[in-house]
């Protein structure tokens, strides 16, 4: 059981009034965090609140400009990630950082492989230790396979195995559950709890309050680059935390506006791609928001991509306004008024090196062109309209998109597709990794679009989001549609059951 | 949850399976096939006085250069300057013997390798610190090194008569019928392969090439390793330059011209991924062997001069397409494998 921690004991790690700025931009005004051994500490705050900057200082990626950083009572100042690691700090980033070509074992031990005579790497020892760690974690991953092809959940397990092999005393997990399904989250949590019981200090960053309350014992809230408050989790409520995070009351997190539901605009019939999805049929009406729920890996994104034409399908058909849509032709889909906002915005939705302006106008280049040339003024004008409607928080439109926060990047991607004036909008995990305030804005925006008569298909793994936003909920499991619920019928229990039904039996 | 491990195949069997599937095996078979075909058509290809010797001797120099090149490519870089480095060090070798009579051969070897290392260090420093892609940097140094060579050599050239007999003997001599230069190349190969496979510094090169930003987050010393890879590549080219002088005796200002592309071709044919992270120096060395052996075999087989280059091109494109297909299949297999064990 977790050891009692009193303020008299030396904290595992303590940051106080840490400052960090990049040029004129102050990312962290006064960051403070106090971690006790044998505790799981939640770090929450809106995007841009300074959590990631704080984590990167702990990891040795950034050096602080001011303030105190003590590890087990000793003042430290890391110049490199190697130093932070050598001091027993492991950071698991939101986006896994593994070497796809190398084996799982090599990924765990890279840079600190056990060596024997002549500095020769002791592969047997490495293999044995990896196997032992996986046994302890209760997971089955072939240690000799390359990490290429592993799910994000498995990749995170490998990151955790790395931390364990390092015998890390401080473990920071930056939104580890963002891409995980329910079962995978449970597995991660039981691992986290056992690490806590061994006396390690864990930091858990998440936007999901149920997880924070489920897992953590202490919570620190940050806002605008500064520490707001730290308290035991039992002394607070979701409402209190949200108030502290946004500095205002958020009464309605999912403002669904009533919209008039019109004609059927998108009809998908018997869509099948062997091994990916089978016999998927559904329709979406104008002004309607259809939620597509299910576990990660159920084939939802694949269906969306097939409908839009980026992925192939073998059988079945897609109709827009009653007329068939050709297979595998995204251009045709766009011309017919389809828009797809992909799941992985960094990889599929944005050109990170291009400025905001160019990203927003990317999908409407041909419309903006005059005599085959794109004129800067027209482009800026068009981008400005959308950036302001979506309230993208960036000082200038010529900022590189890669430097924006996650929420703002998502808005830029949305803006890019809304600029095409779509009739049918498919959004895949529209609020993944986005803070509460921005989330509500994205929801309000989707709701307004539906009011304007746009048909929306929203893929989401967050149940409250699906239930709060959708007029109708479709559920997929293992490549098949397993449930369809009207808004009134869609209860969390019913949807989860449809999404997981056979899971229990299979285990 | 209990842990079940899939029944492990017998280690020897597993190793055998890997060997059969390995790219290196395919290249070795191709070499045997080419040699066999050429020998059937003209037995002197292998069974003449110089046939067997030349078979091993001709690819030896490119093998050394290709090993260095492979190490650089594995880190997701490329070294276009190696041909020019071969030229410079070959000329240095000749002029050292010409200007300093009686100089021990060992000193010349050291000088050639050291010059190569310095030229590689310049490449590495520019790439690692200026953060400019290696393709651009080494394209620049390729011309600069060659320019220096031309300015230094002028219309002059080193002749066999300038070189001590013992040194020339090194270039063509054999030990138990095997050319000395080939043995040297194999020695370099065996050490490089062992180092890349078994030492941290070797494995880290693969990690850096597989995902440079992840390597940064792991706390690997990326700058130092990349720098080292270029120094190794330069040194290998430097060694090849010394061997060039020993093998051919004549060194003009265009010695080693175009070797950078042959070395890259050899590495690619041998299965070294052009985007880094994958491949072995065994593959690169075998690729070099195949490339030059094909060049020599084609006239015997009766392929027109005109088409010989095209065959090399087909080989390179074929290798890349093969890699691509294999990588896709592998990726699908890995995804499927994970699905099964869920």
Quickly describe the structure.
The complex is a heterodimer of chains A (507) and B (342). Helices cover 35% and strands 24% of the residues of chain A.
What do these coordinates show?
The complex is a heterodimer of chains A (507) and B (342). Chain A is an alpha/beta fold and 507 residues long. Chain A has 18 helices and 20 strands. Chain A has a six-stranded mixed beta sheet with strand order 6-7-8-3-9-10, with helices on both faces. In chain A, strands 16-17-18-13-19-20 form a six-stranded mixed beta sheet, with helices on both faces. Chain A has a four-stranded antiparallel beta sheet with strand order 2-1-4-5, covered by helices on one side. In chain A, strand 9 and strand 10 (226-232) form a beta hairpin. Chain A is globular and about 70 Å long. Residues 1-7 and 502-507 of chain A have low confidence and may be disordered. Chain B is an all-alpha fold. Chain B has one domain (24-307): ABC transporter involved in vitamin B12 uptake, BtuC (Orthogonal Bundle). In chain B, 75% of the residues lie in helices and 1% in strands. Chain B has a two-stranded antiparallel ribbon. In chain B, strand 1 (174-175) and strand 2 (178-179) form a beta hairpin. In chain B, helix 4 (82-99) crosses helix 12. Mean pLDDT of chain B is 88; it is low at 1-9. The interface between A and B is large, with 40 and 37 residues.
